[in-house]
RNA polymerase sigma-70 factor, ECF subfamily
Amino acid sequence: MPDLSDPDELDALALRAAAGDRAALEDLLAAVQPRVRRTCGRMLLYPEDAEEATQDALLLVATKIGQFGGRSRFTTWLHAVASNSARGTYRTLKRRAAERLTDELPVAPDPRTTSVIAGSRLDLLEALEVVGSSHPELVEPLVLRDVQQLEYSEIAALLEIPLGTVKSRIHAARTAVRPLLAITD
């Protein structure tokens, strides 16, 4: 078995999986599961929610691996898939909570959808939802840089946009998100 801690080996395995090698796909999914779980856990407060997002992300990797063309590192592509999965899980949890509140008597706030600490991951996810509704092109670069801590050049390669555009979008996203995270007295 190749050393999958080596990015070149992981990229090679991903390319074999993208070409239809079923055994390579199974090895790839097993190798990246802990990384995906950490990525989702950075964004979602509860381990159960992070696990749900992890499973969704792994399913997406399995079904969309053919779209990985090797233009960027596989781990960069994987971060984007996992981040988007975590954001999708958050939106689903938020929608379920809203539906439950309209169907039932008022209950105590669900901590997965209501944050009492400004600046928490939930506040960031909510701010990203607000910004994404009017400027969706700003959200992914910000998440990849500030949450997943990818390098600007990795983000540019993944999103297939110029480095200057990445930096501009991240700056604009930070400017848009900052007032939404402000603590009020």
In short: The two ends are 57 Å apart (CA to CA). DSSP finds eight helices and no strands in the chain. The chain has two domains: 1-108, 115-185. The helical segments are 7-18, 22-41, 47-64, 74-103, 121-134, 136-147, 152-159, 163-177.
